[in-house]
Here is the input.
Amino acid sequence: MEIAPVRVLLVEDHKLMRVGLRSLFDDQEQVEIVSEAQSGKEALENYKITHPDVVLMDIGLPDISGIETTKKIIEHNQNASVIILTSHLSEQEVNDALLAGAKAYVMKDINIEILTMIIRTVKEGAMWLDPKVVPMLRDKNCGIIPPRHVSRAMFKEQHANLTQREYEVLKLVVDGKSNNEIAQELTISEHTAKAHVCNIIQKLLVDDRTQAAVKALKEGLV
Here is the structure.
């Protein structure tokens, strides 16, 4: 059975970036750019006309910010799926974007295949945060991901199938460490680190390492 592509509204004020993203997605059968906008006002108008599955939203727009535009889109449709795609990495903007209702916060240096995966999973209701963002929410949580503090004993009871080593790896995943950095930190091979991360993802019933980190923060596992 052929899977229908995700219909995307691309909001980006820089023409070169818009053209570049569109050309990249032209090679991705899973994503279809159904409309483009270069301002917040135009994005809101186009959203109401095209009803896309996902909005790919820049923050720095010429009239109102991408965060304010996200808020207006969510006010129009509380089930809207907005992905912030930006080069901005500040704690305030991350918090404001998520409070506005964005489902994902992604840096522009991301690989197109991974971005395609994020678009598909966000359409299905998932949340995705760039690994560079996760430590901000852990260190200075402003209510975006409310922690539920649990004891180590309760953690073991709830996640008894997670080994001590996997728990150590999970803490490093929350810190935004790559597989190579985890391997160096724990003095293990990168292949072993990758295997531990894969096991953690399976055991926590999530789709990727970022969702594992978010779940660990939400449940107070680390």
In short: The first helix runs from residue 15 to 26.
